[in-house]
Design brief:
Length: 281
């Protein structure tokens, strides 16, 4: 019997994403679809290298055309937001071109700021849309973004997605309750908590890599505090910095902080660590 086909969309404009929670989550969702015997057509403008190497999916890179290059560099945030908006139509064309002869069971989209391409494809192909909602992108942009003003349509597009999705997937009851307060019907929300694949994250199987990393970094006898993720406000890297400042002077030869990732706060984070004469590498 022929496998049913899922259209998976990731539409944030960051092709260089290599590590962090969103990478693990995206791969986890895709692998779950593959393991439940679906054929996955994956269209993404992010984490390109990871998805290109995935053996069990058909992958297409979504390319945007930054047409607002003439806007001066100091207004780069305006240029970025405009490119996010126009990418909806570039992405729509690319996806529809590839799936015109495909029968799609449903669309699964990881929601990103100012993107509504999933709703456009849903309306065109007349198939259900599952929207993965990891929190309000409009709120993140307002509280922690670089906007000096409220960009038009941010809230409207987010609400448009929530209203038109057939199912909304969230990772916690807190997010479910937030959506209910916004007027979203409880029955169209599913809570899918984060977890790990215990076969991949098996401490015994990973032991050899752990030992190698400790030896390479010359920290074999230290207690190691680890972090992998985005250096940004929502992961509380400011709190991690405070912990480092508090503990390292006291236990300098006994502990080690191993932080992996990138993001808007990384450069300042490293600068402040170096000011304290802590060794950062």
């Amino acid at each position: 019997m022929k496998k049913e086909t899922i259209l998976y969309l990731r539409t944030d404009l960051n092709p260089c994403i290599k590590a962090g929670g969103s990478v693990s989550h995206t791969l986890g969702i895709i692998n779950a679809f593959v393991n439940t015997d679906f054929e996955v057509l994956c269209f993404s403008s992010a984490m390109i290298n990871h998805l290109k190497k995935h053996k069990n999916i058909e992958f297409f890179q979504l390319r945007t055309l930054p047409i607002f290059w003439f806007i001066r560099w100091r207004f780069w945030i305006l240029r970025e937001r405009l490119n996010m908006l126009t990418s909806n139509f570039f992405f729509l064309f690319q996806v529809l071109l590839r799936i015109k002869n495909k029968k799609i069971k449903f669309i699964y989209q990881r929601y990103s700021l100012l993107n509504f391409v999933g709703v456009l494809i849903k309306n065109k192909k007349k198939v259900p849309l599952i929207l993965e909602y990891n929190g309000s992108e409009a709120k993140v942009a307002r509280l922690w973004g670089d906007d000096t003003y409220d960009f038009p349509f941010v809230n409207k597009i987010e609400n448009y997605n929530l209203k038109n999705a057939d199912v909304i997937s969230v990772v916690s009851n807190v997010l479910r309750d937030e959506l209910i307060q916004k007027g979203i019907r409880k029955k169209k929300i599913i809570v899918c908590p984060n977890g790990v694949d215990h076969k991949i994250f098996d401490p015994e199987q990973l032991k050899i890599y752990r030992i190698k990393i400790r030896n390479d970094l010359k920290i074999s006898s230290n207690v190691v505090f680890g972090f992998i993720g985005t250096f940004s406000y929502w992961h509380g890297v400011g709190i991690i910095k405070e912990i480092i400042f508090k503990l390292l002077p006291k236990y300098k030869d006994k502990i080690h902080f191993l932080l992996i990732g990138c993001g808007p706060l990384k450069a300042d984070f490293e600068k402040e660590i170096n000011k304290q004469n802590f060794k950062a590498n």
